[in-house]
Each structure stands twice: as C-alpha cells, then as structure tokens.
Amino acid sequence: MKSTPTPTLLYIDDDFGLARLVQKGLARQGFHIEHCDNGEAGVARIREGGIDVVALDQYMPGLDGLETLEKIQAIIGAPPVVFVTASQDSKIAVTALKAGAIDYLVKDTQGDFVPLLHVAATSALKQAMISKARDDAEAEVHASRDRYAALAAEREVLLREVNHRVGNSLQIIASLLHLQANSSSDEHVKTALTNAMGRVAAVAQVHRRLYTSHDLKSVLLNQYLEALLEDLRRSAEGNRMSRLTLKATTVEIDPDRAVAIGIIVNELVMNAVKYAYPDGAGPIHVVLTADGDALELSITDDGVGLNVKVDPRSTGMGQRIVNAMANKLEATVTRDPEHSGTRIVLRFCAVTKPAVAPPMSATG
After folding, report:
1. Confidence at 284, pLDDT banded by 50, 70, 90
2. Neighbour tally for 123: CB within 10 Å
3. Judging by DSSP bridges, how do beta strands 284-291 and 294-301 pair with one another?
4. Partner of 202 for a Cys bridge, out of 13, 126, 262, 308, CB 3.0 to 4.6 A?
5. How far, in Å, CA of 216 to CA of 207, rounded?
6. Listing from the earlier edge strand, what are the strands of the sheet with 103-106?
C-alpha cells in the first residue's frame, strides 16, 4: 500500500519557545515542521519550494505578519497560510482573511493553541488539494477546448480545400462536356451532353458556394439559385434564356438538399427552354417562398403548356431525375392545372425531417 507523504509545515514566528512546542505537538500528528524566525527568511524558504502549509505569526521584527502574507501571496503556487496572533482584535483576523489567509487562530504562550493549529493546518491542506484539483480540471477543460478549436479550425480549412478542389474538378468536367457538345454534329448527342453539363454545373455551384461561404454547414439557397441561373444563361444558345428570372426569399439549407434542388431547377428550366416556346424565347420564372421551415419552389413558363407534343427523341430521363431528387427531399411535385402554360410546384421542408421510430410490438 502506498504511504501518504509527510506534509511540511513552515512556522514563521520570532518566539523560539512556541516554535519548539509547535514542532513537538505537530510532529506527533504526522507533520514535518520547519521554523523561520522572521518574515524575510520565511518568504525566502517558501520560494525554495517543498512547503505544504504555513503558520504565520502577526507580530515580528522587520516584516510583520500582514506584510509577510502579502509577499507570500505574490509567490506563484504559494502554500495556504494559517494566520496566528496573540491579539484578540477581530479586525486583524478580518484583514488577514481578506489578504488571502485561509484560516485564523489566536495563540497563547503555553502552546494550548497547537491542537487548533493541527486542525487548521489539516483543513488548509484539504482545501488546497481541492482547489488544485479544481484548477487542474479547469485547466484541462480549457486545454481541451483549445485542442477542439484547433481541430475544428483545421477541419474547416480542409473542408474548404476539399470543396474548392471538388468544385474545380466538376467545373472542368462541365467545360469538357460543353466542348464535346459544341463539337458534335448529332443534335441528340449535343442535347444529351448539354443536359449532363447542366447537372454537373448544378453540383459544382454548391461546392463553390461552400468554398466561399463562412458557414460550411449550410448554403444560402437564394444566392445559390441566382448563381445557378446565371450559369444557365451563360451556357444557353442565343437568347433562349434571356427572360429567365428569379424571385427568392433568403433561406439557409444544408448542402445535400441544395444539390437536389439545383438539379431539379436545372432539369425543369431546361425542359421549359426546349419545349415551352417552339417559336423562340419566352419568360421562365423561378420563385422560392418560405413559410417557416416549409418551402415552395415553382418553375413557370407561359408557353404551349399541355398542348405540347412529346418530342420523340425524349428519353424521359429528366422526369426520372426530378422524381429521384424530389424523393431525396421528401418533396411533393405537382403541376398547376390553372396555369395556361406550365407551372411546376415543389413543396418541401428546409430541414431534414427526423426519422420516426417504428411502433413497438406488443411483445417488444
């Protein structure tokens, strides 16, 4: 069994007789006693280290007890101090405790105070241990917070770099698809490559938003849609998207859901460009509104609407993509029957709905 180390008490008092009584009385209680007969010597001894608790007399030549206490308190990691005096003046006790003494007791010339000093010193050691444990715990908490903050900052830098690289890579892929589409003489191939380019660009735009944003956990959906539609305008032939507009409220959304929304908008806008206005360009409106967490996104044109004939070259891929992304969003997709052209309305929640636990069986 590990033995408990012997605590060292430094008794600072110019009375050698009382010092011997303290040494004899506390040695029997398991203390090692050292004695200094003046404040300067006591402060010097404490600076050397190895003192666990101090008993400090008030009246001494040179530095008195209060002056000595002030110097002790200035030492980093100073041991607890029990203030000892022969005076019955309670003002001294109050002053000593305010100055940092952990306890106070009145001494007598016969040494009857020694048992009280033992109690006070033992209590002071316990309080010092508790205080040190608390300080160590607080220091560890602060160190843990600092480590976490450093890791979080490093993670943010890495995520920004990843988003930057992914965005650049996707942009390169979109550019290659654009070049390939322009070089193809087959209109069907050109259309397929252009559609693929728009889908890649929709995903790349999210990563660009994350790279330039202060918040890596969310995307401002209105800004994202604005940038996405600008990409579509730049990639369009002639003026087929010159009347493409956006009206959107400010909404934050997580990146995964932003990707799904961007792909849906890309598909529906491209569909309106291809089929709504057979004789040329016309208005296409993208509108995003919010009611709390409930969002409504509509893509509207004033074109031929339900009178349009299905293009025989159509594979239905766009509709399948819209349905897949809507499922990912847990969204409903409806066509407005009252609109003369085509108005597709997407309704969904700004945040992912929590999973509902299955009901427990009777035997569960």
Report:
1. very high
2. 15
3. antiparallel
4. 262
5. 10
6. 32-36, 8-12, 53-57, 81-85, 103-106
Q: How far apart are CA 144 and CA 152, in angstroms?
A: 12
Of residues 162 and 222, which shows the higher confidence score? Answer: 222
Helix 187-212 / helix 221-235 crossing angle, nearest 10 deg: 150
CA 127 to chain centre: 35
Rounded CA-CA distance 120/116 in Å is 6
135 pLDDT above the threshold of 70: yes
Q: Which two tokens stand for residue 43?
A: 């402060």
Contacts of 152 (CB under 8 A, 6+ apart): none
Q: How confident is the model at residue 314 (pLDDT cuts 50, 70, 90)?
A: low
293, 299 Cβ separation under 8 angstroms? no
DSSP assignment letter at 14 = S
Kindly tell me if the per-residue pLDDT of 361 is higher than 50.
no
Cα dihedral angle (234, 318, 344, 247), rounded to 10 degrees?
Answer: -20
